[in-house]
Amino acid sequence: MRSLLLGLVSLFLLISCSEEDVQLKYTLRGRAQGTTYSIVYMASAGKDFHTQVDSILFEVDRSLSAWNPNSTLSKVNSGELDSVTDPLFITCIQAGQRISRETGGAFDMTVGPLVNYWGFGAEQRGELDSAVVDSLLKLTGFYNLRMGSDGKLIRPKGLKIDVNAIAQGYSVDLLAEWLDARGISNYLIEVGGEMKARGVNLEGNPWIVGIDKPSEEIQEQRFQVIVNLDSASLATSGNYRKFFVDSISGIKFSHTIDPKTGYPARDRLLSVSIVTSSCMDADAIATACMVMGLDKAKAFVQSRSDVEAYFVFGGLTGDWEVWSTEGFDAMVH
């Protein structure tokens, strides 16, 4: 009887361990922040985190959405709030200000009034007028925005914050931290094209991701390059899909605003892809490089041992050309 009991206990333990060891593939998809998200991860049975993921993204929206009138960001920009306790907002602003300093102001969240004026924010585009641009430019400058340790914002009247170039990367980081805290060590997270990967896929291979060609429309052969992404984040910024053409001048204006001029950035750079540990940093640095232009962006990424980069730019003959760091080349699949 004792032998039978021990045998049953051993069988139960074996089955329990086997069920815990079996890794299932979970794929979560949905919409958030005016775009889509996709998360693939490996975990044992009963770990479908769709509801929790949606809750995290809802909190980000409640904090940082320019389209939600009740978000912390909207209340700050309307002047309703001068002091904040929202930890997501505080973390995002502090990170953005750090990256502004690191990039010499090429990344600047205070371009909010200009983003709205050019029609790339939550407001309708106005008539193009250089005098208006000059007046709005006076309301910007990351050095004019400070946040005290108590969350109090110090800024001139009229300064508005735009986090579109950092919020999606921040969302990816938050989701990754949440999965890490629950022992999920193999995942690929993507929000609006910004990504973070850790570990391997179900087949035990590194995660493979593609970077889109800088075309206005998605082509059948859509990827410019395919890379292995392991324990890193990837963010891409480009001027090839978010733009408008002025009906009078015929000039094409892209969504990346140069904080120094107040006008959309114009350069040979078509797209910038950045790989680093933080997706929030990768997101903001990619935008900063688009503002810097090809030569300054090359010098910047080469000065950073923690950053890899892949640039697509217009050659002198009109054809696309590419430039990348050695570390990025080693990632190419």
Automatic annotation (TrEMBL):
Gene3D superfamilies according to UniProt: ApbE-like domains
Compartments where found: Cell inner membrane
UniProt-listed InterPro entries: ApbE, ApbE-like_sf
Cofactor: Mg(2+); Mn(2+)
Membrane topology: Lipid-anchor
Catalytic activity: L-threonyl-[protein] + FAD = FMN-L-threonyl-[protein] + AMP + H(+)
Enzyme Commission number(s) of this protein: 2.7.1.180
Binding site for Mg(2+): A165, D283, T287
Cofactor binding: number and manner: Magnesium. Can also use manganese.
Superkingdom of the organism of origin: Bacteria
GO molecular function terms noted in the UniProt entry: metal ion binding; transferase activity
Entry keywords, A to Z: Cell inner membrane, Cell membrane, FAD, Flavoprotein, Lipoprotein, Magnesium, Membrane, Metal-binding, Transferase
GO cellular component term, pick one: plasma membrane
Protein family membership: Belongs to the ApbE family.
Task performed by this protein: Flavin transferase that catalyzes the transfer of the FMN moiety of FAD and its covalent binding to the hydroxyl group of a threonine residue in a target flavoprotein.
Protein name per Swiss-Prot or TrEMBL: FAD:protein FMN transferase
